[in-house]
Amino acid sequence: MDKTKPIWVSGGTGYVGARLIPRLLEAGYKVRAISRTVDKLTSRPWANNPNLEIYPADVLDLESLTQTMRGCSVVYYMVHSMNAHPKKYREMDKKAAQNVAKVAAQVGIERIIYLGGLGSKNSSDLSKHLQSRHEVADILCNGKVPVTVLRAAMIIGSGSASFEILRYLVDRLPIMITPKWVSTPCQPIAIRNVLTYLIGCLDSPGTIGKTLDIGGKEVVTYRDLMEMYAEEAGLPKRAVIPVPFFTPRLSSYWIHLVTPMPASIARPLAEGLKNPVTCLNNDILELVPQELLSCREAVKFALEKMEMQQIESHWTDAGYSFSPEWVYSGDPQWAGGTIYEDKRKITLKAKPEEIWQPICRIGGETGWYYGDWLWQLRGVIDRMVGGVGLRRGRRHPTELRPGDALDFWRVADLQENKRLMLIAEMKLPGQAILDFKINKLDEETLELYQTARFLPKGLFGILYWWLVTPLHFFVFNGMLLGMVKASGANILEGPELIK
User: Fold this and answer.
1) β-pairing verdict for 31-35 and 52-56
2) Whole-angstrom Cα distance, residue 128 to residue 121?
3) Is the whole-model pTM more than 0.85?
């Protein structure tokens, strides 16, 4: 494998891609990582590696693909639009795969490596989610560039979507009423084994032009996995009761209520659980030999990573993160209407880094410093109407980076010791941000500004703002005071509302 040319990696902000890039770099490869949101990549601990290039690109945009793919040798294609476009992901995935296959041929890419899904293509009952994975593989394979397709079932690792569903269901439900899919055979694989296969293909010419199934040591049922997880997590034995009338739709709503996974993502995943997903060929074992982990070992390693707070990537990392221009411009005419604002200031005797720590710990297990029951109620309401709710939590209890999910917010802007801006991802009749800014006055004094801004959508959006406005005095003042208390700083003035 020629290491003088960069390897083009899409899906670098996704669960697998964010772990693949640093391992390629460790192996001595040059990497060109692309993303629609480059801040997500530039904030990673490996972003300053001299062998890494980061470029903005969109797989739906031919021009950006051509510019970024030119000069590369291999393409890793791991884009899946389910997070970003839950209602039309199949159409988006088809278009994206067609674009990549076309541009790869035009610029002289030597091969494409695609991580797809298991399941029989000939099954009349194959879920739409798995059909989409097979459709993408077919589009790539019908192009002019040789393709290696690796087909996997459930990936077990800290932060993976499938593992998070399993974890929350078993953690929270001592008695589980489940669909018939609880007895469906599957062949899960540990994330470390997936990464070894992905990288191993580079130095294995025998994988070129092949479709290879990758799985762990054993075939198990989802019920087996639940029992393994409970044992490894030190939980009492769970009662699992399958019932025939539990449809995939009902399963997705149940997953939505019990786990952080929104129904829009849970449903296609739940539908796929009815399909047996086991390896139909084992050629990969000879082409890329490695020691495979058992399901129990994979679960154990995932739990250890979580306990040590070493989650490299999380399912919530994927998807497009953006900050609407109105957030920065504040121009009501440009925005198409009034922007409502609640801005408060508190003056402190403190250094920026002292107040920055409690700001960065907000949400998740820390909570919101005041009126947590109100935030929890808002989260419950959000889940009931199909939103993400508070259960999504955060990737790390004390660290944040651009693009991180934070309860029902997402980090839109982060400047250490200066600014944290969150954009709302809960269901709202409009768009909202929550912004914290630190203004240093001198070596011992600073101002902390907290701003909530809302761009309403229609009459209901306007009514919504005025209905919640009476709570702002208690919630936002309380939040500021709670942060100050957590920092140990002394209040010189405020909090006060700035009009």
Assistant:
1) parallel
2) 11
3) no
